[in-house]
Amino acid sequence: MANVEEQNTPASERGGVATSARAGADPRLKIRPRNGADQIDPAEFAKLLDLYDNSFRNIAEGEVVKGTVLKVTASEVIIDVGYKSEGIIGVSEFLDEAGEVTVQPGDIVDVLLERTEDREGYVVLSREKA
Fold first, then answer.
1. CA 76/CA 120 separation, integer angstroms
2. For position 25, what pLDDT does the model report?
3. Which of 41, 49, 94 is nearest to 71 (CA)?
4. Cα–Cα distance between 100 and 105 in angstroms, integer?
5. What is the model's pLDDT at position 75?
6. What is the gyration radius of the CA atoms in the chain, in angstroms?
7. How many Å apart are CA 72 and CA 103, to the nearest integer?
8. Scanning 22, 28, 44, 90, which has its CA 20 to 30 A from the CA of 6?
9. Residue 52 in 3-state DSSP?
10. pLDDT, tens digit (0-9, with 9 covering 90-100), for 56-96
């Protein structure tokens, strides 16, 4: 079966690698051939990947951690706990007796990590259980 995109998209608009031999190539593109100097040493790449992986905090479900409030909306508070993605807590957990929100962006709060990821990719946190 033929690729529908290739049937309906002009050759000059299809994705791919820019080459000087390509008909209709955008003349504003600067074409730079890859040479050996552009290659990353596999050992260096492995080291960088390890540093990246270790830059995230290793936190476990059920652990109380400190997080930084990033944003407060009408329905939720977004918190950075140093994990791969942010966590979301319902704003109701941050209301005082008068119904006023008690946190603002930049505040540090203690939260309980309930799950490392929900269906939408967010960390599931709770302030009440912390």
1. 15
2. 65
3. 94
4. 15
5. 95
6. 24
7. 8
8. 28
9. helix
10. 667 778 889 899 999 999 999 999 988 778 899 999 999 99
